[in-house]
Amino acid sequence: MGPGALSAILSALRLPTNPNLLIGLAVSDDAAVYTIDESTALVQTVDFFPPIVDDPYTFGAIAAANALSDVYAMGGRPITAMSVAAFPDDLDPAIIVAIFQGGADKVAEAGAVLVGGHTVTDREPKYGLSVTGLVHPAQITPKGGARPGDRLLLTKPIGTGLITSAAKWDKVAPGDLETAIISMLRLNRRAAELATQVGVHAATDITGFGLLGHAAEIARSSRVGLRFHSADLPLLPGALAYARAGICPGGLVRNRQFLEADGYLRYADEVEEAYRLLFNDPQTSGGLLVALPPIAAEDLLRRCATVGQECWDVGEVVEGEGIVVA
Fold first, then answer.
1. Which of these CATH numbers, 3.90.650.10, 2.40.50.140, 3.40.190.10, 3.90.226.10, describes 151-325?
2. Full-prediction pTM beyond 0.90?
């Protein structure tokens, strides 16, 4: 669902709460957090989607990495996962095995255990995970903690939506798709661990709502404004060319319309249309966006460089509200 439709549905719900529920549907965050005791809280999330690549094993692994990312965005460590899947009755069982195996192997890479799951029959295959993690209550990284003066750091380049769409339309260069797949397969585990070491004020992972859509959730939850610099936006190889060619996933249009409808998102006149597309491009298994003080940001950039973890300074938190792209 697009951000506008989802927001309308969630706002209409009346749900019971619990004093142990630290983060639930009352706020827009990446996962729920429930307190167990003074030193332990559960992190719970679920995510699944149709295939975005042809190879079934790779699809399963990407879907798993994408679902695990929500736990990392909350500062947590995944411990168990359950598969959530839908397949047509006539799908080759070998394909289903490969999808499940890709997911199981990615869960194991995360240091967690695949413990079960649930399947239904559907004409279009879908796969993902329900994930449970652990986090110390003092180390939760919600969306609502950003402060004016914070830097905004991003841990993966942008462009998976445009590139996978180009692949569906048989307009992608093989090398571009391969690089995008490598990025989507990469867990946010190391980035999250490093961010925890320096202390961040707010964090989210970049997925279907695009960089600006998820950044807006940080801004609104924190009651601040954000400013991004298009010249500093890290891009996957080929992404800019596909944007300039007019390749545009449907989710991108919904993301953009939602943010631009009331003037919440504003672009400087010199920002190229292709970059406006890229900032709203729906990502799959994208990176983490973190807000943290300038000194901590410098520390995180150094730590990332030391271990080979990608990380870019892409903007800052400002007083006020809304998002500006310069």
1. 3.90.650.10
2. yes
